[in-house]
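Crash report, auto-generated. Payload:
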Amino acid sequence: MAISGTEREEFEKQLEAYVGLDIGLEDRGRDPVNAAMVRHWCEAMGDACGAYTDAAEAAASVHGELVAPPTMLQTWILGGVSMASGESDPRDKQKELHRLFDSKGFTGVVATNTEQEYTRYLKMGDEIRAKTVIESISEQKATGLGIGYFINTRSTFRDQNDEEVGWLTFRVLKFEIAEASASSSSEAAAPSRPQRLKPALGHDNAWWWDCVEKDELAIQRCSRCQALRHPPRPMCGECQASDWDFVFSTGQGTIYSFVVIRHPEVPGYTYPLVVAVVELEEGTRFVGNVLDIDPEEVEIGMPVQASIELVDDEMKLPVFRRAQ
Amino acid sequence: MPTTLKDEAAIVGIGETEYSKNSGRSELALAAEACRAAIADAGLTPADIDGMTTFTMDNSDEIEVARAVGVGDLRFFSRTPHGGGAAIGVMHQAVMAVATGSAKAVVVYRALNGRSGARYSEGVSGGPTTSDLIHWSWYMPSGLMTPASWVAMVTQRYMHETGCTSEDLAEVCIAQREHAIKNPRAFFHGKPLTLEEHQSARHIVEPLRLYDCCQETDGGAACVVVSPEMARDLPNPPALIRAVAQGAGAHQESMTSFYRPTMTDLPEVDLSARQCWEISGLTADDIDAAVIYDAFSSIVLWQLESYGFCKKGEAADFIRDGALRLGGRLPTNTHGGQLSEAYVHGMNGVNEGVRLIRGTSTSQPAKNEHVLVTAGVGVPTSGMILGQG
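Recovered output after restart:
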């Protein structure tokens, strides 16, 4: 069980003291920005941009010389293998904060999100260092992983001339691992992470979900008048026939309406969650998630393409992406 | 035998519990207290009651409530489905029972621990495999499982088609809050709302922000329906039911009617409206004030259109100059509504409609000959017109 009452109050007061603190250490790049690390990174990531790895192409580019991929920013200051050894500098306030969480049972840690901004492209020979501040600590949250607190840090990156070259924010959840809090329970091991709500299956819809398992987005069709209908029903509302078959949709459609769900956050789903009513080219509508898009960019009339994918460890679902 | 439900029954008593975020007692207790208060307000005793009706979503059976309150023989009991759409549906049941002689005095009630108990905002998730759960199963896997998410889908399309903005929705919220400020029963009693606060509040489901969504409340509300003849002998001025009607439309789903040729068409609301006017012989011009179902701000606009207070797509223009406020064309939700008084599934709105007719609202308009009371949007719905007895 998570701590409560005065113990929790005192703990949260201790946490407050960390907000706004510089973690006390400056991360310095062990190597200047260099072509070898850039090449390894680009090969690993599958990034073929010539400005990063081909001197001639880079010279002809707007950069005029080789530059490093902006998203490598943090790479330059990471501690390498020594990070895995578990040793840490006693002056490190961030580690100290994590140990404080550990001492109260919040031993789990998971990185949840990061945001980065790049001021300029890094060039070969740049020497990068970063300072990190603990920006905020959330109130206690009940998450899908367990009860815990979010810690937000902000690292500012500077070069050899003390000019800012970018920043990143990083958020981790320190949480009470669910197994520990459920140790008295004799239930079988829970799935490793929460799963989405599954559909109830009955005579009128199980066949449709069987099609999804076979990677097909089916649309029910009246055997008599050929009218398409969705969601499936046992009788045709047009001609009252009970016989039906189905066709497979191409998955092409346009967004008829959509929402961006922010509250409440249900375990198993990722937020903000975009859900759209899509008008399929066959004429029926279908409700599904729109993935890989900034919610601000979704709009009515946007062409989308369905694909059938695993949305968690167990369930396949038709999902949509902006059509190319 | 009457052929319509015009002037066949009246509301003679209203009652409610306090509205709170944690009642500290059972839903059955809330239901019993609300019924007891309504029966006393009517000048009747439990022994006079021979009919009871409530929502299918209510967790307290008629016979349990009857036994708690001390009601004896029950000649009529029934339930109406589809959440808030039932709020006037239950009135329809009561009026039919009284008009046909199936019962003499019907208590209508609804009580829920909507905040401290099961919260509707937490969404649908499971239950027995009924056609209703199969219906929700088209939405749960994608995460579309709360009332806010279903209404937001239609709201987005409505805003796209009409040019209605979030600031227009704010006017609904602010007008109602002005009323709630004066209502001691209201959660937001004494707490004004500004446009800036509305606009800076977090999104719940875009395009709906926090104050576009109704509250979650613990509480109960009830009223007593009898014949106009019986009403004459009772202490309170009756609220005569000039018309009452239900409606479900083509391609109706409960909350998710996304498959209609035009999603923003609400044939179920149009149907309730049409029947209210046909039965009463009145028009929108005859209505002096309204209680319009407001689980979310946007649905108030749609009902203004369906009931003919303005043309389709023009509700934002209709309300922009304060039509919903006291002194405006149609003072609406003078108790604060479910956005600002309490969410008792529309039954608190029925009681406010009766207060408007009695002249006892805390935001009482000068003219109160006819009051419209509606229930539910996006679900099979219902509406009624109250008049002076």
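Post-recovery validation: The interface with chain B takes residues 196-202, 204-205, 230-231, 256-264, 266, 269, 272-273, 275, 277, 284-285, 287-289, 295, 300, 311, 315, 317 of chain A (CB under 8 Å).
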